[in-house]
Amino acid sequence: MLTTYALDVYAARKLNMQPKANAGGIHNLVVTSGDKSLEMFKNIVAVANDVDVRGNIRTPSVLISQMMIGGE
To answer: Which helix (H) or strand (E) holds 9?
Structure first.
């Protein structure tokens, strides 16, 4: 279950939310994939044209029709 977002000040203001004190960027985010990563790519419905070029991570929004997220 997604419980929070890693938001910089700009994104937090646009979403009317609070930033998460990551002004220097996201450095400790680890994303691991299980055996179903190919299934996730097959479920991509759309890719937006909203790349934010101001930071180090440059990827557009991706709409996935079905995906299970787990973690601690």
So the answer is: helix 9-15
